[in-house]
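Request: Not sure, any thoughts?
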Amino acid sequence: MSKLEMLTPENSAIALIDYQPAMFQGVQSHDRLVTMNNVQILAKAAKLFKIPTVLTTVARDSFSGPFMPEVTSLFPGHDIIDRTSMNSWLDANFRKAVAATGRKKFVLAGLWTEACVIFPTLDMMREGFEIYIAADACGDLSLEAHNRAMERAIQAGAIPITSSQYAYELQQDWARSETYEGMMDIQREHSPYGIQIRFSKWALGEHASEGGTKAA
């Protein structure tokens, strides 16, 4: 593996961790609506590009509530691994799901950064995984807690990215027509750039395309 190698649909997988009501209630580091939009960018990109996806919750039925339906509805029938451990890597079912992807490059995002993201990050890197943290889809009890956890992860060798960066890295070229409209839908629904997309379509007509005529 090489950190200079781009993330692609063929070499990466993603784990989304603990996007549950009780965990969202504790988030004070970011606007929670921004975090909700960013995790949907990740999830919708994962579905669009057919990325192996692991979903996990903590104490779903006894404390934290269900994984946010905006994400789970994208993966009907998908197994959602429920745990008691803060550290997903301590859960045998999580480790089994990660191994089943066959991938060593893993994108992680979750609530909260200082525990449920940093802990599996450190353990998975010890096991030889290359970890990319979608920092803008994470959240924590305070900005200080989030930033210190991200710094610790980076010092340990994890790579910080953003949700849209991951989607763009998968797309690479707007002329890739098979995923172009799906990417445009993600931008319209969850990104400020969606305003520009709507304007361009209005001003230039439906033939307007960043990929030129081939993507129209």
